[in-house]
Amino acid sequence: MALPLILVSIPLLLLAHQLFQRLRFKLPPGPRAWPVVGNLYDIKPVRFRCFAEWSGAYGPIISVWFGSTLNVVVSSSALAKEVLKEHDQQLADRHRSRSAAKFSRDGQDLIWADYGPHYVKVRKVCTLELFSPKRLEALRPIREDEVTAMVESIFKDCTNPDNVGKSLPVKKYLGVVAFNNITRLAFGKRFVNAEGVMDEQGLEFKAIVSNGLKLGASLAMSEHIPWLRWMFPLEEEAFAKHGARRDRLTRAIMEEHTIARQKSGAKQHFVDALLTLKDKYDLSEDTIIGLLWDMITAGMDTTAISAEWAMAELIKNPRVQQKAQEELDRVVGFERVMTESDFSSLPYLQSVAKEALRLHPPTPLMLPHRSNTHVKIGGYDIPKGSNVHVNVWAIARDPAVWKSPLEFRPERFLEEDVDMKGHDFRLLPFGAGRRVCPGAQLGINLVASMLGHLLHHFVWTPPQGMKPEEIDMSENPGLVTYMRTPLQAVATPRLPSELYKRVPYEM
């Protein structure tokens, strides 16, 4: 008799709590929430578009209930400034799902840590040590090596007699650059040889990444409705196995670096930096492992996603592609390849990268912030424990702050210099405030480098029989926004053939 009573009373208590919250606080408006499930069944799969639609109906700040959890979504630059600057400290905690809590050892890393002494310490390590201008410059040859390897690979494929005139899967080449670049920066490892064959550690690394994604996706509904969790128990054993496997690989790589350092001194890779700074910053092994995997999680998908969207826009807009190529021909010429030191002389190329990040931010809702106290935003109450999302995708397309916001027009950034590293709240691909992405400059450099090489070396056109305007520009659902239909394009070489060789660099 007791069990049915408990099953009935839990939802009623949750409903009463929800009603109490709404009567006690002046919450932002929003779509009507259903008992127990809230708005979960009304949210369309591509959430940032759905929230932008709701903001059109209810205003720039809305309440969305994920089960019994209040989520506040802001979609204007003025409100983004309130969230990320004026009330930044009160909103700097993280909402950790059960899987995020497991992966991060309850916030022992940077991405999932709540705001406090631990976060301040690891953030300092990232800003002053891992992503300092000096280290980014020291690691530049790795980025240039990988981008020239991509060019060589595309050249081989598009000049193969069997492939002439055929389209190539652009994402494949961008994904290889992003993967090799981040594993080399973080671990000092290129898991793939010159023939594209992956070694044993690389296969293990890939398996760990895909298993992590699978485990993370397995809990969706029960995350939002706490009383349902007993029906969807956390697979403790699967998470423990995953964690042990990840740690085993990371420790083996750390051990290799420790031995190499004793023989030949410290290198610039993140793993070496963290191991040599361990005592100075009092970093536990869990924190070092967490930080290395943060770099991989945050850096692997986002750069490839941003470059793919940019290429789609350049193929849709041949005028822009041609203008960027004219700038490259003028500055770099036809007798050498571009390097990152050319960036300062390539303002249009930089504007192309910026415009792609405006229209297609890789994390369109950022990661949710959580309020650590009661706070007011836009005149509404945000109770302690609520999640706050900034819809950077909607803000970057807001006609109130952008002229012709849906048009891909890089010139807008030559007419007005707009910061995109967290100081201008109209453009926030990397967030802002205490939780701004510490690797923003690294991401910008890699995206600009990929685009510069792709445009300098090749002319890009749609597959035969497809018009530029027919390219599918819709997004896949998820935390990061892959193109729903991966981009296919025809690459035609435009430089002398000797400029398509990889420039390998070992460090």
Describe this structure in words.
- There is one protein chain.
- The protein is an alpha+beta fold.
- It has one domain: Cytochrome P450 (Cytochrome p450, Orthogonal Bundle), CATH 1.10.630.
- The chain has 18 helices and 10 strands.
- The strands form 3 sheets. Strands 1-2-8-5-3 form a 5-stranded mixed β-sheet. Strands 4-10-9 form a 3-stranded antiparallel β-sheet.
- Strand 1 and strand 2 form a beta hairpin.
- Helix 7 runs antiparallel to helix 8, helix 7 runs parallel beside helix 18 and helix 8 runs antiparallel to helix 13.
- It is globular and about 75 Å long.
- The termini are far apart.
- 42% of the residues are buried.
Number of helices: 18
CATH homologous superfamily classification: Cytochrome P450
Strand content: 5-15%
For the termini, the CA-CA separation is: 69 Å
Task: Name the strands of the widest sheet in spatial order.
Answer: 1-2-8-5-3
Number of separate domains: 1
Helical residues, percent: 40-55%
Largest sheet, strands/sense/barrel: 5 strands, mixed
Helix and strand string, N-terminal first?
HHEEHEHHHHEHHHHHHHHEEEEHHHEE
On the 0 to 100 scale, the average pLDDT is 89
Question: What is the CATH top level name?
Answer: Mainly Alpha
CA-atom Rg in angstroms: 24 Å
CATH architectural group = Orthogonal Bundle
Number of β-strand runs: 10
Low-confidence stretches: none
Derived structural class: alpha+beta
- CATH topology annotation: Cytochrome p450
Shape: globular
